[in-house]
């Protein structure tokens, strides 16, 4: 009877269909009978970056052992024969971990995504015994998170990301900027207050939750060119050990594009938007922009600006303190501008950017710091003359730095700097005289 049925089925069901049914049947049987369980950890989770993925990515290189059969290695520093290159996990490499008597097998996988973004989809596969599933969730993953956190806090390299419109992805480079709060020339009280503000920000997760605010802090750095705004951003990144996402607002085509870009950034990072006054649609008064656009449209109805909405101020504000602000934790958002007066008042409203920092011309304290940095001296008989001149001459720290770099010989450098300041003072006096006459 069975043979008869088999023959009839063989006749009736095409071979391909038979193969499909039998493979599904074996899949189901092996899943029911297998004692293994698999966790999948994708790079993104519910449309934002998956922090579990990031934690595993930081943790797994610490578990490289004798059973590991391939490795990614490399270095971004000049090769040192005494230190080995850095290690990372390549795709398809198997990593074995043992934790509290459990045997855990990890593999990093990559598949090409059908979506335009991201083109490659990476995920980690973790296999363990079915009976260990709950222990993995309750003890192993928290252990990974704790370990990753301490690794990331101590990481020796930071990254700076720029957004590539072509590939719709953030591209990273190693960030090695020497600026620190120690090297910054600015008023000591201001410097101290910024450091205290950062310290209190990173330790007040519960406070932010308690008052119902997103765990974010906005800084607006403003002042003339060359006064150290970018250097301060670097000092903040080095101080907190945060990566920087350097966003050119123009690289987002629309507000929804911007949301996508911003939700692809990771926690514990700085989002930097430099020269915000140059991003016209974002920075300027919205009523003026509307008028301008209407004028533009009258003249050239087919211009890009009439069809391409670009990023709007409200789109950006939505991420700062609107509904989208809840996406991501522990973020510092920094805007820099040379022209605060050109910004839309909505951007400056209290509560939007929490801290406004004016980076001004070089003061006596700033000069002393730069002299210590560049010449290695704390005092000199010519300091009094220089400080006197600085009261009447506006000179940026960048200009001072340029002057102090001229030679290694402090005496010669300081004398030439005095001449430079006197020349500037004479120019100012000449201009004042012209205006009076
Ligand atoms: N306050 C400062 N302390 C120490 N160095 C400074 C300071 N300001 C400027 N410099 C020096 O001048 C260079 C240029 O400064 P920086 O790019 O930080 O200025 P900025 O205000 O960001 O200028 P811009 O507005 O043009 O971007 C720095 O590389 C640094 O060497």
Question: What's a quick, concise take on this entry?
Answer:
This protein is 44% helix and 19% strand. It is α/β, with parallel strands linked by helices.
Helices, strands, pairings?
Layout: H1 2-12, H2 15-33, E1 36-42, E2 44-45, E3 48-49, H3 51-59, E4 72-74, E5 86-88, E6 94-99, E7 102-112, E8 120-129, H4 133-154, E9 158-164, E10 169-175, H5 188-203, H6 205-210, E11 216-222, H7 229-240, E12 243-246, H8 255-263, E13 269-273, H9 280-283, H10 286-299, H11 304-307, H12 313-321, E14 331-337, H13 345-348, E15 355-358, H14 364-375, H15 383-390, H16 397-404, H17 410-436
Parallel strand pairs: 9-12, 11-14, 11-15, 12-13, 13-14
Antiparallel strand pairs: 1-8, 2-3, 4-5, 6-7, 7-8, 9-10
This protein binds adenosine-5'-triphosphate.
Description of the structure:
- 23% of the residues are buried.
- The strands form four sheets. A seven-stranded mixed sheet has the order 10-9-12-13-14-11-15, with helices on one face. A four-stranded antiparallel sheet has the order 1-8-7-6, with helices on one face.
- 44% of the residues lie in helices and 19% in strands.
- With 437 residues, it is of the alpha/beta class.
- About 5% of the residues have low confidence.
- The site of adenosine-5'-triphosphate (ATP) has 15 residues, from α7 and α16.
- InterPro entries: AAA+_ATPase, AAA_N_dom, At3g28540-like_C, ATPase_AAA_core, ATPase_AAA_CS, Mitochondrial_chaperone_BCS1, P-loop_NTPase.
- Keywords: ATP-binding, Hydrolase, Magnesium, Nucleotide-binding.
- Belongs to the AAA ATPase family. BCS1 subfamily.
- One of its GO terms (molecular function) is ATP binding.
